[in-house]
Amino acid sequence: MKSSITRTPEEIAKEISTLQELRALVPQFMRYEDGEPSEHDNHEAIGAQIKTLEKNLTFELITEEDWSEYAEEHALEARDWLKGELNDPPSVDWRALVPV
Questions:
Q1: Is 100 helix (H, G, I), strand (E, B) or coil?
Q2: Residue 31's beta-bridge partner residues?
Q3: Core-most of 17, 24, 31, 90, by most CB within 10 Å?
Q4: How many domains does the chain have?
Q5: CA separation for the pair 66, 3 (Å, rounded)
Q6: What is the DSSP string of 28-90?
């Protein structure tokens, strides 16, 4: 069942700001245990989330963007949070990738 909760402009602005801060801290590419780099671009994915929140992108607009599948999946997660279908904001997952 989908929730009817929507995010306030303040919540959206705070999440955009948090994502912008995290983009500077999260490595662009992670490394697997064997030392090989991941092909997933974390900065592209965070940028896709920011654009989704800033522009209130619809599902259709997200899928028309020229993003990798990885970035598109993250943009769709941001969309779900924006529409109240996810409780945790997109930034929650990125915090775990910030090096200590």
A1: coil
A2: 37
A3: 90
A4: 1
A5: 29
A6: SS-B-TTSPBPS--HHHHHHHHHHHHHHT--HHHHHHS---HHHHHHHHHHHHHHTTS-SS-T
Distance, CA of 31 to CA of 3 (rounded, Å): 36
Within-domain flag for 4: no
Q: Answer whether 0.85 is exceeded by the pTM.
A: yes
What is the separation of C-alpha 70 from the centre of its chain, rounded to a whole number of angstroms?
10
**Is 26 among the domain residues?**
yes
Residue linked to tokens 């671009």: 41
53: tokens are 């929140």
Q: What angle do CA 98, 21, 71 make, to 5 degrees?
A: 75
Determine the Cα–Cα distance for residues 91 and 100; give it in Å rounded to an integer: 17
| Residue matched to tokens 């109240």 | 84
Q: What is the pLDDT of residues 54-72, one digit of tens each?
A: 999 999 999 999 999 999 9
Sequence letter at residue 85: E
